[in-house]
User: Fold this.
Amino acid sequence: MFEYQEDATLRINPPLVCLLTMLATSAWANDKENVNPSCQLVPEANCGWAELRKLKAPGIDLHDGQFMATRLDEAELAGANMSGSHLQLTNFYKANLRGVDFSQSHMHAVNLIGANLEGANLEGVNLLDANLSGANLKGAKIDRALWTAANLSGATWVDGRVCAQGSKGECR
Assistant:
């Protein structure tokens, strides 16, 4: 993709960059089928890129799993254990995550728009660049959570107040 010349300039290979962008975009959209049919919903699962929209699995134990870029839109996972999991780019749009244990999970750039995280355990979670607009965080445990650049616009904060539009990294 990148090539160094003797004169120390950097040349970018546009066709390769375009191809990688298209692959990443299509995988993120993941609108047609399950791109990880080997995904098994067990502890330490390898379910990256899986299509699990509207999954109904309250209380399931999925600790230390790998769910990178997995589609869990509108999933019912209340009381589940996802502690220590890798959830970067995972889509939890409007999911019921009430009381879910996400402690020590990596949740960089996750989509939590409109998700119910009431009473969830987010202790030690990395939420860098996460989108929590309109999410419900009332009563969630947030000690040592990393909120850098997280979108909290319209989210209900742990104390019940609604975060102002434009809240980034902290509830204003």
Summary: The longest helix spans residues 14-29. The beta strands are 2-4, 10-12.
